[in-house]
Protein 1
Amino acid sequence: MVTIMNKVQANAKPAGLRMTRQRRLILEELDAPGRHPTADAVYQQVRRRIPNISLGTVYRNLEVLSQAGMIRKLHIGSGQKRYDRKLHKHYHVHCVQCGRISDLPGGPFGDLEEVARGNSDFDIIGYELEFEGLCRQCKDSSPRQREPN
Amino acid sequence: MVTIMNKVQANAKPAGLRMTRQRRLILEELDAPGRHPTADAVYQQVRRRIPNISLGTVYRNLEVLSQAGMIRKLHIGSGQKRYDRKLHKHYHVHCVQCGRISDLPGGPFGDLEEVARGNSDFDIIGYELEFEGLCRQCKDSSPRQREPN
DNA sequence: TTCATAATAGTAACCATTACTGTCTTGGCG
DNA sequence: CGCCAAGACAGTAATGGTTACTATTATGAA
Ligand SMILES: [Mn+2]
Ligand SMILES: [Mn+2]
Ligand SMILES: [Zn+2]
Ligand SMILES: [Zn+2]
């Protein structure tokens, strides 16, 4: 009866994934478009509805959901991992001032992989590309501190 | 927080840094071309000559040397940071099997930044690009475990 | 409704890195 | 050369992010 469960099974990855309240809220938190929250940010949000949810539960679910291909785990910069519900290939811009991460509109660039293939004896299977810069806010306001996503 | 960076730029030369035995060996460890060791790998190597060197000393020096612009700190993938003596802009290939990191021969690609600038309201100042794949060894041998750099 | 087992809360452990502290070195100056 | 301020050190504790463990609870297929 519940659509999300159907979605899970429609997405066809894992038998044996149960849809718990915790998991549903974590997923909903990522459903808002354009967000790339850290595990802790998800935790803080979900905590408002399930005050005693465990941080471990958040981590476990983020892992299990990305294993199942329902979300993507991002390793951007040197800090915490980020999670992204947008599954198709796209690039990110990372504000070096406040840590904000935004999608870069516009599809993937020309074939970087091809160039790499010609120059390496590695069997190239992909690449990671992310841009760095200053977001609009940080560009034209006095330096603030970290207020990610 | 006035330190080495300033001194170095003032003196136009990495003097102002004292040259200790520890620092020299750490630097020598990175001088071997094509290496991208982790802090721990450097530690293990230098330890053979200075058995009681502190891991903290290795970290402190790697930090101070990259602040001074004598080495570069790399954040590749989700694991430990890597250090690179090669200062000019170049790309890396990362073996997803064994973790090895190699330089990609051939200079920087065309203007990725320009494309990003057109698509974002961020003030783009640079980008990080790294390729993933299987190194020669992992490509044609049975799966091994992590034996980085 | 039952029941095997997936998932949870709570907590401990882990790993990479950084911070602290008292002692030892280094190197510029005489 | 030796002096000595402060840079660097070893040893160790602390931190931050993440994962592992465990006894208990909740899910959902039959
Ligand atoms: Mn995204
Ligand atoms: Mn390199
Ligand atoms: Zn910003
Ligand atoms: Zn390999």
Protein 2
Amino acid sequence: MNARAPRQKPASQRATIADVAAAAGVSKATVSRFFNHRERLLSPDIAARVEAAIATLGYSPSPMAQALSRGKSRLIGLIVADITNPYSVAVLRGAEKACQDAGYLVMLFNLGNDFERGREAIDALAGYQVDGFILNTLGRGAGVVDAVARHGKPVVLVDRRHDGMEADFVSLDNAGAMALACEHLRDGGAREFLYLTEPQHDVSTRHERAAAFGDCMKVHAGVLHGRVVESREDANDALDQALCALVGRASPGHRPAVIAGNAVVTLRIATAMTRLGWRFGDALSFVGFDDTEWAPLVGPGLSTIAQPTDAIGRTAATCLIERLGGLEGPARQLLLPGQLVLRGSSLSP
Amino acid sequence: MNARAPRQKPASQRATIADVAAAAGVSKATVSRFFNHRERLLSPDIAARVEAAIATLGYSPSPMAQALSRGKSRLIGLIVADITNPYSVAVLRGAEKACQDAGYLVMLFNLGNDFERGREAIDALAGYQVDGFILNTLGRGAGVVDAVARHGKPVVLVDRRHDGMEADFVSLDNAGAMALACEHLRDGGAREFLYLTEPQHDVSTRHERAAAFGDCMKVHAGVLHGRVVESREDANDALDQALCALVGRASPGHRPAVIAGNAVVTLRIATAMTRLGWRFGDALSFVGFDDTEWAPLVGPGLSTIAQPTDAIGRTAATCLIERLGGLEGPARQLLLPGQLVLRGSSLSP
DNA sequence: TTGTAAGCGTTATCAG
DNA sequence: CTGATAACGCTTACAA
């Protein structure tokens, strides 16, 4: 008996390892061993007793206590720039599946497009002892590189590189995908091209796509002509003008081509088209990045570049888990191919 | 000095409370008090020393250790049936915001539409000592009620009731929203109605909407006629037939009306319309539940019922946090109003 | 093969 | 107001 009163035990809680030990008439260590080294060092009869006690008490170890004790949590921190973005969600799903298969749980932190919160997110997740990070943000927002470095945990970057950071990187093969789109449109007779993108800022994917677009034009220099225009929210006039200018440049018999850098831009273009009274596949050919569920429903159907989102997420998770398993070596770069989905917007009538 | 070698301290880790205590020349208890009871019981000079040590070491308390010690984690478990569903995501966003404002972190578990995993999800989250649950699933899938009950933690249900469960419930006012849609369509001249829903199974929202539809028809018995049809994936023929039958029933001068139970059904109907070569707002009037970003782009624009998703999520989180704060009393029921968004599909030409 | 006890990073009780 | 010290639930040397 202790002189001091022990903190009272909250009446009916989950069974703890001590309860099991008591019930089975063994020590806590033995119960712990039952879970972690069962076969190797436990006699059958004791194992049976422990097993029975576990069953009757409905015991399962507390991951928190385990994490505290082991220093690792089997938790993976996933930070997304914007959970509203279907791309992010699709990637998330893939990653989550892979993690669960490997016995990891995903802790999600959504930045809600507030890039300054990146550091905060990392610190919060690190507090919960996540073993590693999957980051689908970065570029803007300071301190993230340091924040990650400070905790010294493995990181995988998805879709957005970050300069100062030596980390595995998983993404769509932007150059390949853009080439697919451009070649398809060229085959359809297009000579004048317009690439519409969200403001590029520091988002690596946007830069890569714009650069790839430029390269495609260069390959057919003299015959293909392209322009890149940044589309901003609420800048409808600029968008309309860019489209009109494009159509104005086109020579007869050669339908001009528009490529959208992502689904957000596609949405804006579709709105502009109704505003202008134009029809996809008629006034112009169109291909957009990101194959949304509604792409088939707009006008004659929108041709798109489908990203292997699920594979991207799964690959990212796998990468990270490999690193957690101790894999060494330089940062890897995994570029997955996109797929051209043909619909009316880019086909000849 | 201990006879036994202590487990070696991993070289450069996060600073712990002990490090801070040492640096400030005080006890761990004092450092702890600095965070939890600063003003009340800490002399200014000691507080200053602690503060300095915290700053130089970059210390912040480990939430895991806190959770272990306190028995509460400031973590909220959020279980969604399907993260792919934009409705769920929108709610998630609202809830997350409210939680963060209140100093809680959300742990997300996605069922991926595998309803049998509900129990697993709850146990996993309970393992991490979440203080309470927000559930956006249930109905199907066994054991969830017991699983929740077993842990005895507060729960808020979103959008889907569950019979055996006494818990706060937050959702769209389905009856009100349906009435809005029906009255609008009736004003537009519709007399023959078709309500298309996903298979109702045990999903309470689907039942409520179907029942509300029936009630609306009953209110104008004799003049309004309605049918409810369940639309299944890959049952295109049945859908087409239902639509044709509806149009067949309509008397001249009275455009028939179609109401879609959610965005998934809306998508199917839109596809059917192009298949049939019909045009929204022409062959029939249309209103669908859920205001998606693409609703304005389909045909003349689709009229919808916009759910206050953000408010739903926020409300759910607030509810839960109130309970965590000790609020007693019977289960509450919070029904938030929907908003009718008018577009071409339900307007007279 | 099993038990003992230290330690993971906190908080809370009790004595000064 | 401050410091020891026992818990929280678990793992893991080390001893037996």
